[in-house]
């Protein structure tokens, strides 16, 4: 009888699906139907683990995390780096510590051959790292072979596969054309397949990755979110599109925390993963991720109740003064120089910036300190591309001279041009992304524009672009000037100089500026293994681009946070900054503890 | 009446198709791919891959036919921005919330708005009139997001700080108390519309010949107002409720944003910003169907209250 | 009635320019109101029975008798004057930074409306913002007028298949959420003053087209129009000399209300980041700046003054529009 009803429910579900009712809606109908026939036993299976009794977590084992500004789209980092879900549900081979060094995660140790062209990762043996809340499975080398292949397979449309292009044949495979018979043809017409990739599981616990050449920074790439794995059995059972949407299927994950429930647009709840290698050091028993837009977050931090409260939050420029002046709130403030830079990129192909003198004048006409101050402490002046705290940051007075703020130098640079004396400027527009007020992008842009008016008599308008138009318009390289940010993906100068300014790429050039010597240096830096030598290479590159004013570093992003006083063991980096969970460092929940929460 | 309804419904099908076609064409004319909003760090090749995956590399008329075919079967496709989630999933969980809020806001607006308008008309140029005109103008001179912020600050921040905690919270959509402030913020503008509209329509009727006649016949003022004025002046007011409900019931970007309500209003703006074509089309079609249904309903109601109208 | 009724309001509807929720009441409310009133058989005859020559003089006198209308008119004129003479009145340039260190200073005698996060004088920016707002408001309505009136007139006067086709097209545009359409255009062309009023105009004309059509439909069968036709007047001259003047009242009133609606929509666009190009100020982007959650608490003056400016302008246009309607409608003359 129960089996019969189940069959009926399944058929009914298909019917509902065909008219567009989703599983959840169907469940409501089904539950009603089942209750009516008293066949509850047959339905219980459908309700799934979400309805299982929640284990009690004390106030000091609970954390209200400010992780989600929007509803997550899924938990499939393997296909989409920006799924916007809680990053601590998954773990890769390596991870970053608070100083942004790559350290062991599921790989207990890792080493390379002499020229750093082959990397070996030794995975923690006999673990039970994967879990769906009820069952467990080990994390093995095969998981990463499968996952990297899945991400690089052109059939899967993984938008950020480019992060893995250092792996042998990765770019060739990803840029190949899938054929109807399941094979692939690369750009030159030769067959290529996932087998050609330089990824091999030597045994269950040993992963060997062969590079396109020497890649000393590969651990940084592997520690990045883009290298999170996906569980093959779940992908195959539930489908590539559905396995990571939770809801009606359990989410298999291998991070320090497991997804417990996901109420769309409202709340994500996590519980610890008992099979995670670091489980014994994790004190939190329950983590709430209320989904709260940035604008309302501060109110939720101060006034929130129930699950709509926060234990930490970003403080914006408007509230910072209030926090600094309040004796109690000021104790809760924490600062972090974020690995991200704001810069002004003039186009050397479009008048008036085709003239080096004009670019130089602009570079001398902007007082970086003033721009930083206008944000009220949410930025700090920048003089090179790599942010403070990241390998490759150059604290070099010589470099700071090149584009130093000096209105007189700025006007002098114009002598002999048609703009001498700050006259005859054509119409000039500076372009930027819309809706980046959270980062004070608009306030800084307005100040730069004001400074150019004051110091050069140059009148500049600001054109903002919505997300959808920004990328295609930017890549046309037809803008006179761009106010643009670069958040580091992985903390290495290659991510800054290579991924942003390298000009010998087929697409995705943000700026018209190019320089052969600069490009050569970037290539050299990529394959140089010695850190000291690399640093010198990037110093030269920085000098070239600054002297030719290919870009103007303006400020680094600074984040100000407030943490409730009961949050302890906050991760700090060597500069003494508190490092919260973010895009790079993703282990805050595992590191912190809660003590003496006020209810 | 049935025949009339049927013909209206049948007429609406080509209108809907045309709406979809217009939106589709304009969307395709605007430069860029829906996957451009993914991130600037994605290469053109990756975007081409995604377009192929979702059939966006096909000619536009083919895409349109496929889309309409699926839509007729109730499948509105994958939301390009929230992929792999489908539009049905997303709308399915957000629309009921917007509808709920919209219903409350409409009720609030109708009850308070019509009352205010009526009082104002009866006491034309008296203090009630001035008060209601002032309230109405204040309400619709203030954008809903400003109104929302001010309500939050007043009821959830300032009053509790000063010892009067009415239990309002800064946002969320969990307990019935969370419904109050958004309802006011969302209902304020329609309230103003209805109040002003009721007032002017009522004054119109009060001045008309048949009311003068009724008065002249010596009917009591209350009787005149209730029997003649109310009935005749509310007819045009009723026509407004339909479109108001259609507008408010499909959600408001601003109110939902300010109060952190998981409704579908946000897609009226965000789907545009990220060029999430499937979501844009779904929002347009839902709004269109909703509006048409409301107007049909209003017309039918209209026929009931105004015996001069026959279909 | 059986045929014309559904055609008069096929989708009904209010204008949804700014936000589905803001549901700007005015333009469409009047559109509906005027059409609705005209439909009542008891009133139609009275309207056309009046001689039209003294209409404007009478209206002007009636307008001046209406205290609220005078207040409205005064506010509107004041804003127009302030906008035109902004460069003379404003103590600072429109995007001039007084001092970056004084950012977000509270209102004082020196800076009556305070300073913004960039240290710019809010008073000056409100004055310059008036220029933008009024340009957006007026020019968008000019476009609305240029597209909406001919289409509505054509449909209403010719009737039949032309009417049907045009009105079906109008229905389609009408049923698409307006904010979405405006965003579509702005995404396509980019933001900026010209693109914004163009988009507003291109999206907003349907209301007035409907209104005009309704008027023409009602008026073309009137006796005096028939009389003109019989006496040999051509179609175009009938439209221009007989029907249009009698449709002016609702058109003027609708435009009066369309202006603040457009100002509002510009504010909404600025709020979502695709409004007027900074550093040029508009009340819309000033409201957007001030309405960030943090500033509402810490620096309410940033929000207060632009909101007051918009509110006052709305108030002015509303009073004026109400007064105009009363004054132009002879029935109100008791």
TrEMBL record, chain A:
GO cellular component terms, A-Z: ATP-binding cassette (ABC) transporter complex; outer membrane-bounded periplasmic space
InterPro entries: Peptide/Ni-bd, SBP_5, SBP_5_dom, TAT_signal
Broad class of where this protein is predominantly found: other
Keyword set, alphabetical order: Signal, Transport
Keyword check for Signal: yes
Protein family according to the UniProt entry: Belongs to the bacterial solute-binding protein 5 family.
PANTHER family associated with the record: PERIPLASMIC BINDING COMPONENT OF ABC TRANSPORTER, PERIPLASMIC OLIGOPEPTIDE-BINDING PROTEIN-RELATED
Protein name: Oligopeptide ABC transporter, periplasmic oligopeptide-binding protein OppA
From TrEMBL, chain B:
Matches recorded under CDD domains: TM_PBP2
Cellular compartments per GO CC: plasma membrane
Protein known as: Dipeptide transport system permease protein DppB
Topology term for the membrane: Multi-pass membrane protein
InterPro entries per record: BPD_transp_1_N, MetI-like, MetI-like_sf
Transmembrane segments: 9-27, 101-122, 134-159, 179-197, 233-259, 279-305
UniProt source species: uncultured Thermomicrobiales bacterium
Keyword presence, Transferase: no
């Amino acid at each position: 009888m129960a089996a019969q009803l189940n069959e009926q429910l399944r058929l009914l579900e298909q019917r509902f699906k065909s008219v567009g009712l989703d599983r959840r809606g169907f469940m409501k109908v089904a539950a009603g139907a089942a209750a009516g026939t008293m066949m509850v036993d047959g339905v219980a299976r459908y309700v799934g683990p979400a309805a299982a009794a929640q284990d009690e977590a004390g106030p000091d084992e609970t954390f209200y995390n400010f992780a989600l500004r929007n509803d997550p789209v899924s938990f499939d980092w393997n296909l989409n780096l920006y799924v916007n879900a809680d990053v601590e549900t998954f773990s890769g081979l390596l991870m970053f510590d608070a100083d942004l060094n790559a350290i062991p995660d599921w790989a207990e140790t890792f080493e390379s051959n002499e020229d750093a062209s082959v990397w070996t990762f030794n995975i923690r043996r006999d673990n039970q790292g994967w879990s769906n809340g009820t069952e467990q499975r080990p994390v093995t080398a095969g998981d990463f072979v499968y996952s990297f292949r899945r991400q690089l397979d052109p059939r899967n449309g993984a938008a950020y596969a480019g992060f893995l292009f250092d792996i042998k044949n990765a770019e060739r495979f990803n840029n190949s054309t899938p054929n109807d018979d399941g094979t692939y043809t690369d750009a030159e017409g030769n067959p290529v397949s996932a087998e050609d990739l330089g990824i091999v599981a030597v045994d269950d616990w040993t992963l060997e990755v062969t590079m396109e050449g020497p890649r000393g920074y590969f651990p940084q790439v592997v520690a990045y979110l883009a290298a999170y794995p996906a569980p093959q059995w779940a992908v195959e059972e539930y489908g590539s599109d559905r396995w990571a949407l939770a809801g009606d299927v359990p989410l298999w994950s291998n991070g320090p925390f497991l997804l417990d429930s996901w109420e769309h647009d409202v709340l994500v709840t996590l519980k610890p993963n008992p099979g995670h290698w670091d489980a014994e050091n994790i004190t939190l028993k329950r983590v709430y991720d209320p989904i709260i837009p940035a604008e309302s977050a501060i109110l939720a931090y101060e006034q929130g109740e129930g699950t709509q409260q926060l234990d930490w939050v970003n403080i914006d420029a408007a509230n910072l003064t209030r926090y600094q002046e309040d004796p109690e709130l000021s104790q809760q403030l924490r600062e972090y120089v974020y690995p991200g830079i704001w810069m002004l990129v003039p186009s050397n192909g479009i008048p008036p910036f085709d003239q080096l003198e004009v670019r130089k004048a602009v570079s001398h006409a902007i007082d970086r300190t003033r721009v930083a101050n206008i944000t009220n402490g949410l930025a700090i002046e920048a003089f090179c591309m790599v942010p403070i705290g990241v390998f490759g940051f150059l604290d070099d007075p010589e470099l700071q001279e090149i584009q130093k703020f000096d209105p007189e130098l700025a006007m002098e640079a114009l002598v002999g041009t048609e703009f001498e004396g700050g006259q005859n400027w054509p119409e000039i527009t500076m372009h930027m992304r819309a809706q980046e007020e959270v980062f004070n992008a608009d306030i800084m842009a307005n100040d730069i524009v004001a400074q150019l008016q004051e110091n050069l008599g140059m009148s500049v308008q600001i054109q903002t672009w919505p997300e959808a138009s920004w990328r295609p318009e930017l890549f046309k390289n037809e803008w006179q000037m761009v106010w643009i940010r670069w958040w580091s993906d992985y903390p290495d100068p290659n991510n800054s100089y290579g991924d942003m300014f390298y000009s010998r790429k087929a697409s995705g050039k943000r700026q018209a500026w190019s320089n052969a010597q600069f490009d050569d240096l970037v290539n050299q830096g990529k394959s140089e293994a010695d850190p000291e030598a690399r640093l010198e290479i990037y110093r030269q590159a920085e000098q070239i681009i600054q002297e030719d004013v290919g870009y103007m570093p303006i400020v680094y992003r600074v984040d100000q946070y407030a943490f409730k006083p009961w949050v302890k063991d906050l991760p700090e980096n060597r500069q003494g900054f508190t490092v919260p969970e973010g895009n790079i460092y993703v282990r805050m929940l595992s590191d912190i503890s809660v003590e003496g929460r006020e209810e | 009446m049935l025949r009339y309804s049927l013909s209206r419904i049948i007429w609406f099908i080509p209108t809907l198709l045309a709406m979809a076609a217009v939106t589709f064409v304009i969307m395709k004319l605007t430069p860029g791919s829906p996957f451009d909003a993914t991130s600037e760090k994605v290469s053109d090749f990756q975007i081409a891959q995604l377009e192929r995956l979702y059939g966006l590399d096909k000619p536009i008329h083919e895409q349109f036919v496929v889309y309409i075919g699926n839509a007729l079967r109730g499948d509105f496709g994958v939301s390009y921005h929230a992929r792999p989630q489908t539009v049905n999933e997303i709308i399915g969980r957000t629309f009921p919330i917007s509808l709920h809020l919209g219903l409350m806001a409409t009720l609030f607006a109708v009850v308070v708005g019509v009352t205010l308008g009526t009082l104002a008309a009866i006491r034309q140029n008296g203090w009630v009139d001035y008060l209601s005109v002032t309230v109405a103008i204040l309400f619709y001179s203030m954008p809903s997001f400003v109104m929302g912020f001010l309500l939050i600050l007043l009821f959830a921040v300032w009053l509790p700080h000063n010892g009067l905690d009415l239990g309002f919270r800064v946002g969320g959509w969990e307990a019935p108390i969370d419904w109050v402030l958004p309802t006011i913020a969302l209902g304020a503008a329609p309230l103003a519309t209805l109040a002003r509209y009721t007032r002017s329509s009522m004054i119109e009727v009060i001045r008309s010949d048949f009311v003068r006649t009724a008065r002249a016949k010596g009917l009591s003022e209350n009787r005149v107002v209730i029997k003649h004025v109310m009935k005749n002046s509310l007819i045009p007011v009723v026509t407004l409720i339909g479109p108001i409900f259609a507008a408010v019931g499909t959600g408001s970007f601003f109110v939902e944003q300010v109060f952190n309500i998981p409704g579908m209003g946000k897609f009226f703006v965000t789907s545009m910003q990220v060029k999430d074509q499937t979501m844009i089309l779904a929002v347009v079609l839902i709004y269109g169907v909703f509006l048409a249904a409301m107007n049909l309903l209003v017309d039918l109601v209209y026929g009931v209250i105004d015996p001069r109208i026959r279909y | 009635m059986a045929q014309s009724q559904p055609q008069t309001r096929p989708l009904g509807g209010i204008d949804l320019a700014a936000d589905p929720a803001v549901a700007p009441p005015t333009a469409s409310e009047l559109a509906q109101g005027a059409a609705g009133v005209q439909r009542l058989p008891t009133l139609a005859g009275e309207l056309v029975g009046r001689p039209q020559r003294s209409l404007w003089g009478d209206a002007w006198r009636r307008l001046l008798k209406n205290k609220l209308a005078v207040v409205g008119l005064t506010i509107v004129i004041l804003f127009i004057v302030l906008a035109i003479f902004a460069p003379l009145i404003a103590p600072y340039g429109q995007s001039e930074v007084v001092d970056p260190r004084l950012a977000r200073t509270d209102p004082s005698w020196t800076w009556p409306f305070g300073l913004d996060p960039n240290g710019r004088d809010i008073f000056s920016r409100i004055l310059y913002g008036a220029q933008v707002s009024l340009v957006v408001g007026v020019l968008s309505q000019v476009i609305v007028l240029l597209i909406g009136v001919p289409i509505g007139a054509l449909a209403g006067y010719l009737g039949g298949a032309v009417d049907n086709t045009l009105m079906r097209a109008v229905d389609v545009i009408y049923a698409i959420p307006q904010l979405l359409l405006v965003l579509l255009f702005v995404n396509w062309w980019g933001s900026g003053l010209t693109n914004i009023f163009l988009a507003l105009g291109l999206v907003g004309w349907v209301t007035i087209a409907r209104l005009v059509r309704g008027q023409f439909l009602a008026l073309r069968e009137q006796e005096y129009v028939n009389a003109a036709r019989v006496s040999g007047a051509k179609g175009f001259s009938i439209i221009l000399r007989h029907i249009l003047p009698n449709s002016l009242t609702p058109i003027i009133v609708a435009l009066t209300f369309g202006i603040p609606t457009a100002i509002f929509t510009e504010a909404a666009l600025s709020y979502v980041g695709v409004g007027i190009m900074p550093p040029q100020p508009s009340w819309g982007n000033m409201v957007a700046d001030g309405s960030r959650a943090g500033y509402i608490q810490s620096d309410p003056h940033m929000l207060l003054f632009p909101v007051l400016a918009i509110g006052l302008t709305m108030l002015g246009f509303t009073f004026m529009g109400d007064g105009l309607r009363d004054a132009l409608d002879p029935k109100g003359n008791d």
